[in-house]
Every structure is written in structure tokens, then in C-alpha cells.
Amino acid sequence: MNLETEQGNSGLSSPFRGTWGVGVTILAIESSCDETSASVCRDGKILSNYIANQTVHEQYGGVVPELASRAHMQNIVPVVDLALKQANVSLPEIDAIAYTQAPGLIGSLLVGSQFARSLAIAMDKPLIAVHHMQAHVLANLIGDPQPAFPFLCLTVSGGHTQIVFVKSPSDMEVIGETLDDAAGEAFDKTAKIMGLSYPGGPLIDKYAQSGNPKAFAFAEPQIEGLDFSFSGLKTSVLYFLQKQQKENPDFVTKHLADICASIQHRIVTILLNKLKKAALQTGCTRLCMAGGVSANSGLRKGLKELGAQHGWEVFIPDFEYCTDNAAMIAITGYYKYLAGTFTPLAESASARATW
Prior knowledge:
By secondary structure, the protein is an alpha/beta fold. The protein has 10 helices and 10 strands.
């Protein structure tokens, strides 16, 4: 599946500097959910990656779209300004502007896309639309060591769980994906069942580190092929805790670490068993991770152990490039720039654009 849509040249008079691909500076903007981020990339090297988080959503137990878009409008100008200053780059030095086009919260996406479009018009620079999940995959190309092509990437986040066969920066094929909940949803929803605050995934990871991962057994869904399912696990945890709390109302409090460790162990084994199956089926033994859940310590450790057991190469992005960030938009924008794939100014943001 080729990810380069029929965008063509933007029609802008683009003052490219020097040799094609040399001295290329990209300003990138990410605003798909509740982080406002800007990054500057030059020749494939990240010079800055600034992220403004939104804490307002914690009291609601999830992201409130209207509040998220308002916060983006407040944050985007100072965030871009800080990213340029950190990179020691001025606006006239920018060769192109990349932004997250899809998928995500439409109000949030529109703030970033309209800002990028306006800046491109004002500066007479090319515009580069980026698919959020493609960018997560290409976060593995930030810094060294980098995987050679082809490689398999397990993309795991609050909204997506996929196994992607990556042949080049622009040629990727989704060979497995979730049939219901994403892995990040499984973490957050089971955390909510236990009464943990939002976001619950990092809290499960925190408590799991002092718990016994085999204290409680949760079944692994038997799904054919390379697809995933997590809704059954969520239900299993709910029924298990309801039963235990009938007998002991303090069960969760007394066994929190063990419960978290057991839930995390099952989610990690589901993910890695499918990734192992994909490696054996495709013969591709370069394994990568991407997405917010790839910051989970249990998953990172498990992938490294899987690679060591089979002699496979493993690549995991630094923590700052796992969650939503503009650096991954910048690196993707850089490769699109080299390919000459620019975006018409009329292109609009989309909440659910496919790969």
C-alpha cells in the first residue's frame, strides 16, 4: 500500500536551496489530539521538538474535544516560536511546512492545518500533509541506530494497534490490526475499572513494576491471522474484579500492583505473540515499535527479550518520540520533501482518513 496520495505539487514558487535534499529545513506541527507540538528538522536531523500538554482533561477522565481545540489555539503560536528558537532557525530559513492532516480530533486537526496553511501562504513555502500513523512508524528513523528497509513495525496507541510491513518511507502495508479496542484503550479502560485516574495506562505501568505479572491469569483472545482483539480482555478484567470485590471490597487496593502487573503482562504477550507470528510469516526479522504505548516499560522490555531469543534486530524510539510529537511529523515531512510530494492548499484535515 503506497501512502503517497495524489497530492501533486502545491503550485507554490518554492525557493529550494542548494542541492536537492541538502540543507533542507522542515517546520512541523502536530495537533491531532491534546498535545500542541512543533519541531524543526534539517537534513533528517531533529533540531527541536517542543510539546505543550493539556492537563485540563484529567478532571473529565478523557480528552474533551472542544477544550482541546481551544487549548491548541492558545498554544500554537508560542509553541512554534519556542521550537524555532530552540533550533536557532528563523522563519525565512524554512523550506517547507509539514502538519498532521489525519487522523485525530477534527477540531484539533483544523487548528494545526489552518495555521500551517496560513504560514505557507504568507511565506510562499510548500505545504506537506502527513498521516499521523505513518509519522509514528517513521519515528524509528529519528536518530541512530536506524532500521534498514524492510522492517516490521508494531504501532500501538490509544486509537490504533497495527502491524505494519514497511518497505520504504512511502510504501507501507498494514498486515494486522485490532478488530475492536486498541491496546492503549485496553490499558486506559481497565485502569478506569480499577478507579485509577486518567490517563490510566502510565499508572498501570508504574504499579506493575512492583507486582507479580502471573498473580492473576487473564485469557489471551484466540484471533486468527495477525489481527488483535482487546475488548474481551477488558470484559474479563471487569468480571474478575466484580467477583473479587463482592468477597472483599478492598481487593483492588490490597492487590493493585499484582492486578496491574497481570493486566500489563497479558496485553504485552498479546502484542508480542502477534508480532512474532508476523516475523515468522514474512521472514522479516527487523522489528520496530511506535506509538504512545511503545513507551510502556513492560512492552519495551518484552520486545528486547523477543529479539534476543531469536537473534532478531530490535529498534525502539526514544521516549520523547513515542507519544504524539512534531518530530515524527518533521521526519516524515522531510522524506516527502525529498520525494517531491507536496499538498495543495485546498487539502483539508480529516478525522478518519485511511492510510
